[in-house]
Structure formats: structure tokens, C-alpha cells
Amino acid sequence: MTAAYDPPATRGIEAPRAPKKRVAGRRSNFEMYSWLFMRLSGIVLVVLVLGHLLIMNVLDGGVHKINWGFVAGRWASPFWQIWDLTMLWLAELHGANGLRTIINDYSRKDGTRFVLTILLAASVLLTLGVGTFVIFTFDPTLTSK
């Protein structure tokens, strides 16, 4: 008995211009968008942080002038509130995205990965919530007794 010859052209190779079939279980573009976010947020963060350091430590008289009154005067302006809020959100999300990548790369068990990801998400939400709350509810009229 001889096996039937199956020529290579009939083994399921599609024609070059055949429409692509979507593979079941194929992942979305989340990782690509995550990678792109890291690059773009990093560029924006460089501008925000260097501007922050330049203004706070060089142009406004140095670090010894930073106190309650300085922050109160600065956050009286919506411009500086938005500047600091943008810096907070981008830094937190940028760092969390990096940690998410590290968790996915180095956690061996699915259960461990799940728990670490939940802890990361909870810490991000807490930090963003408290930071945003402080920036928008800061009361410069409070005095310490």
C-alpha cells in the first residue's frame, strides 16, 4: 500500500490575495496601545517634570521658599492645578503600566498574576483618588495651630 500523494499546493495554503481570517482567541491591540502610551506619556512627563523643577527650584527662588503659602498661591490658579493633576495622573499611569508589564513578565502562576494585578489596580485608584481630591479641595485659608 502506498500513501496518497498530497501536493503542497493543496495543504491549506491560501492564495496571496485571499481575505485574512480572524484567528479565534486572538488578542486585541491593548499591548500595542500600552507600548505607545508609555512612549508618549514619557515625553509629556519629561516636559511637565522639568518645567515643574525649573519653576519650583530655579525661577521662584529655590527650594527654601517652598512652604504652605507658596503651594496655596500656586494652587489658587487653575493652570497650576491642571499642570500638577496632569503630572500626577500621567506619572501614576505610566508607572502602573510599567509594573503591570513586570507582573505579566515575571509572575509564573495565573493566581499570583491576578492578585498582584488587583493590588496594583487598587493602589493606583487610591493614589489617583487621594491626589486628585487634595489638588481640587486644597484650602489655602487653613491654618495650623
TrEMBL record:
Q: Which Pfam families match?
A: Sdh_cyt
Leader sequence segment = none
Q: Which SUPFAM superfamilies does the entry mention? A: Fumarate reductase respiratory complex transmembrane subunits
Q: What is its main location?
A: membrane
InterPro entries attached to this UniProt entry = SQR/QFR_C/D, SuccDH_FuR_B_TM-su
Instruction: Give TM segment ranges.
Output: 36-55, 75-93, 114-138
Gene3D superfamilies membership: Fumarate reductase/succinate dehydrogenase, transmembrane subunit (1.20.1300.10)
| Gene Ontology cellular component terms for the protein in this record | membrane
Ranges in coiled-coil conformation? none
Q: Which domain of life is it from?
A: Bacteria
- GO molecular function, one example? metal ion binding
Give compartment(s): Membrane
Provide the alphabetized UniProt keywords: Heme, Iron, Membrane, Metal-binding, Transmembrane, Transmembrane helix
**Descriptive protein name:** Succinate dehydrogenase / fumarate reductase membrane anchor subunit
